[in-house]
Amino acid sequence: MTLWDRLEERQAQVSDRSILSLFNGGRAGVFSARMGDLLFDYSKTYIDVETLDLLLELAADADVFGRRDAMFAGEKINETEGRAVLHTALRNLKGAPVLVDGIDVMPDILATLERMQEFCTQVRSGVFQGQGGAITDVVNIGIGGSDLGPQMTTLALAPYHDGPRAHFVSNIDGAHIADTLKGLNPETTLVIVASKTFTTIETMTNAKTARDWMAQTVADPAAQFVAVSSAIGKAAEFGIPADRVFGFGDYVGGRYSVWGPIGLSLMLAIGPGNFREFLHGGAEMDAHFCKSDAAQNMPLLLALVGIWHHQICGYKTRAVLPYDQRLMHLPAYFQQLEMESNGKSVTMDGQPLTHPSGPVVWGKPGTNGQHAFYQLIHQGTDVVPCEFLIAAKGHEPDLTHQHDLLLANCLAQSEALMKGRSLEEARDLMAAKGFTGAELERQARHHVFPGNRPTTTLIYPKLTPNTLGRIIALYEHRVFVEGVVLGINSFDQWGVELGKELAVALTPLVKGEESVEGKDGSTRMLVDYILKSK
Ligand code: F6P
Q: What is the pTM of this model?
């Protein structure tokens, strides 16, 4: 019997118990982990000691810690692209050597960080100016990891934002750049072209549009452009001088890149000191992941809870529910992190996966979600494991009463999802409301909550740059562990390529420049509709 079989057997044995019944003394302490002042509570799940032991065995069997060490050591664990995976080196502020092909990558990384800091200081102090004076607005043009990371973190750390206003353009839809540039002054706007490859069609098209917009008023638009990329040569071809190109190695994946030059817009917003704090946070989580025992290792435990829910219990999706309006973009960020990393059907060796790949990740901040989709989470037929995140303290000293309501709501949700409401209780409630007979019975059934819906809560004192750094690194390592256990290469993304290729081929068709001949009936009909509607 494999470990997977044993876990499935365990799930069958335990699934008819109530989660609440597991709380018979000390459970919360056992099924939680701490990393500094970060507390991860996974006690409101079905996981018990036997299950946890099996899950830990599964991780050991997959050699998670061996693979972790290989990643940190710069081995080429992204085998399909022949690359090392070293986003962790971007936050290795102490500069301990990290070798790729025998060459230490740290001197380059630290030198680039230094240049970014100098540039940000110049922009923020007004030494670097646009044609019309000090920079008032920064527009980051990028997509995927070159957008979600800086955008999510910049909003998350809004209380630390004392630099120029930040704007983010990603979509090829011209509406995005048009709406963003409208109202900006080209003479005081800095444009960051953020693209690891510097070939992504959305980014390059938007960058050209921004350059044309700037050229209408600014004599030397390139002087107000910056590039962040691992393709330095291509940035030069675009006309951006080398002193304003910030490069990084191909060992940094797009969805893991916010820690380096792709985070330039964040650094401009919150300043180099706060940015370093963010990096420190990430490095602290790295140290925790590398040094903590399995039973207290937060990324490992978070991953195993995810595997238990998705691969073993069969819950199809996972909701990420930050009770923090400023973490509005976190679900989308985790969506890319998880789904682009682990949404694969084959193992590293090209064999079909024996278990489902990573789950669908979705969500939005509480309490807004409560008034939208929580109905399904509470009473729908699909179980959705929920991952709550919340700070004990907000950033608004005058609004602590609102933060208390936020906290109460967050805790209420995980309690309600666990406890539910039985038919008996629902009947009593309806009787108290004056219903009787058949109507009472009918009403009662609508007021039943099945309960036993698993949730986890990640709680921290306050959302500081350091804490945000730890949270992001925590989830990065979680995705890594899941990938190792499933045998997936979490660091390529071939699944995005086919659509890109077909889009290139379809462009002349929607322009009416080439015939639809050879296309399927649906595509022909849609192209025909487009051409007639233009
Ligand atoms: O198409 C997917 C992807 O390659 C992501 O992995 C990446 O974050 C995004 O596109 C943007 O890529 P780039 O930074 O090279 O423009």
A: 0.97
User: What token pair was written down for 481?
Assistant: 């562990």
Which one of 276, 309, 337 terminates a domain? 276
Atom of ligand 1 nearest to the CA of 497: 1
Do residues 204 and 344 both lie within one domain? no
**340 is known as an active-site residue:** yes
Partners of 190 in the β-ladder: 138
Protein residue whose Cα sits closest to atom 6 of ligand 1 = 254
Q: What's 513's domain CATH number? A: 1.10.1390
Q: How far apart are the C-alpha atoms of 467 and 250, rounded to whole Å?
A: 27
Percent of the chain at pLDDT > 90 equals: 97
Measured by CA distance, the residue closest to atom 9 of ligand 1 is 144
Q: Are strands 455-460 and 38-41 parallel, antiparallel or unpaired?
A: antiparallel
48 is in which domain, residue-wise? 3-20+33-73+292-419+454-492
CATH number for the domain that contains residue 206:
3.40.50.10490
Mutate to test the pocket of ligand 1, among 196, 250, 339 (most ligand atoms within 8 A of CB): 196
- In tens, the pLDDT along 110-158 reads 999 999 999 999 999 999 999 999 999 999 999 999 999 999 999 999 9
Task: Quote the radius of gyration of the chain (alpha carbons, Å).
Answer: 25
Is 500 part of the annotated catalytic residue set?
yes
Give pLDDT tens digits for 405-426: 999 999 999 999 999 999 999 9
Reduced to 3 states (helix: H, G, I; strand: E, B; else coil), residue 319 is strand
Which ranges of 355-510 would DSSP assign to H, the alpha helix?
374-379, 400-419, 423-432, 437-446, 465-486, 497-510
ipTM above 0.95, yes or no: yes
pLDDT digits (tens, 9 = 90+) for 517-533: 999 999 999 999 999 99
DSSP string, 457-497: EEEES---HHHHHHHHHHHHHHHHHHHHHHT--TT--GGGH
Asked if 371 is an active-site residue, the reply is yes
**Which of 202, 340, 387, 476 does the annotation list as catalytic?**
340
Ligand 1, CB within 6 Å, residue ranges: 142-146, 195-197, 200, 203, 254-255, 340, 493, 496
For the cut 90, the answer to whether the pLDDT of residue 15 exceeds it is no
